[in-house]
Amino acid sequence: MIESVALCGGVVAGISYYENRQIRLEEYRIASGCLPEVFDQTKLVFLSDLHNRCFGTDQEELMKIIDVIGPDMILVGGDMVVGKPGMTTQTAYHLLSQLAKKYSVVAADGNHEYRMKIYTDTYGKQYEEYVAALRACKVSYLSNQTIKICKKGSSIWITGLSIEREYYRRGSKTEMDPDYLNRTIGKKERGRFHILLAHNPLYFPEYAEWGADLILSGHNHGGWIRLPVFGGLVSPQMRFFPDYDAGLYRQGESQMIISRGLGTHTFPIRVNNYPEISVITLRKLRT
C-alpha cells in the first residue's frame, strides 16, 4: 500500500514537473453584435495566475511566444504574485513592465493581490508600491475601475473587478447580493461592448446578469488534475469537479473564458493541465 501511494505520488510529481515548464496556446473567437466594427479582428492575449513563475531567463520564453502572437492588447486577470509574507512582486513587475514597453497592458487584482492590499499589517505598502510601479510603466491597473478603449471614434470598455475575500471562502459559495456588482463597479450601459476582468469564475451567473459581454477569469488553475470527460478535479475553494474550471462558457449574451493559468503556488500540481496563454480574437457579429 505504501509503495503504491509512493509510486502514484512520484508519477504525479514527474508529470507536474514536466507540464509546469510547458506553455500551451488556447485560441478563442468571441463574436458580439455590440462590438464596434473597427474592433473586428482585434487580437487579445490573456494572462492569469503567474504566481511568480519564470519561463526562461527574464521570462524570455514567455515574451517570445507573445511576440510571435503580436496582440493588439494584453489583459491580465490577477494572481500574478504570491500573496504570502516574504514573497516578491518583482517577478510579476518585471514581466508586465517589459510587456508594457511593446503593448497596451491592462491588469486587475486576483485574490493574492487583494490579500496584500487589505492586510497592511502583514504586507505594509507592498501592494500600493507594486501597483504604483506598474502604473508608472504605463500599465493600466484597474481595481474596481473602468477604462474606455477608443479607436477611430468607437469604444469598448474594460473593468477590473476586485471582490472581497469572503467570495473566495473555501468549502462553500458565499452568495453575492444581486446589487453587489452595481455598487462595486457601477451599472453596465446597454449597447456597450464590455470586458470584465473577474478573477473568480464561480460568479459567472452574476457577471452575466450584470451584463458583461466577455468575462476573463482564472483562479482555478484548471482544476489541478484534469480528467477525461470530467474536467478539472478540484478548485482552490476545495470544490470537487467545479462547474467552471477552464475553457469557454456561455450564458445568454455573455461569454466567459477561464485560463488554466501560468503558475502554481503551495501545491505545484499539474496533470493533463498545461500552463496557458489565451489568445482571443474579437469578431463583429453581423445580423
Q: How would you sum up this structure, described in words?
A:
Helix content is 26%, strand content 25%. The chain has 287 residues and is of the alpha/beta class. The strands form three sheets. It has a six-stranded mixed sheet. Strands 6-7-8-9-13-12 form a six-stranded mixed sheet, covered by helices on one side. A hairpin with a 3-residue loop joins strand 10 (226-227) and strand 11. It is globular.
- CA(first)-CA(last) distance: 62 Å
Order of helices and strands: HEEHEHEHHHEEEHEHEEEEEE
Strand order of the largest sheet: 1-14-2-3-4-5
| Biggest sheet architecture | 6 strands, mixed
Can you tell me the residue ranges where pLDDT is under 50 for at least 5 consecutive residues? 4-8
Question: Main traits of this protein?
Answer:
six-stranded mixed sheet, about 290 residues, alpha/beta, globular, single chain
Could you provide a short overview of the structure?
With 287 residues, the protein is an alpha/beta fold. It has helices at 2-19, 60-69, 90-100, 111-118, 120-123, 126-136, 180-185, 204-210; strands at 24-32, 43-47, 73-76, 104-108, 140-142, 145-151, 154-161, 194-198, 214-217, 226-227, 231-232, 247-251, 254-258, 276-284.
Helix and strand topology:
Blueprint: H1 2-19, E1 24-32, E2 43-47, H2 60-69, E3 73-76, H3 90-100, E4 104-108, H4 111-118, H5 120-123, H6 126-136, E5 140-142, E6 145-151, E7 154-161, H7 180-185, E8 194-198, H8 204-210, E9 214-217, E10 226-227, E11 231-232, E12 247-251, E13 254-258, E14 276-284
Parallel strand pairs: 1-14, 2-3, 3-4, 4-5, 7-8, 8-9, 9-13
Antiparallel strand pairs: 2-14, 6-7, 10-11, 12-13
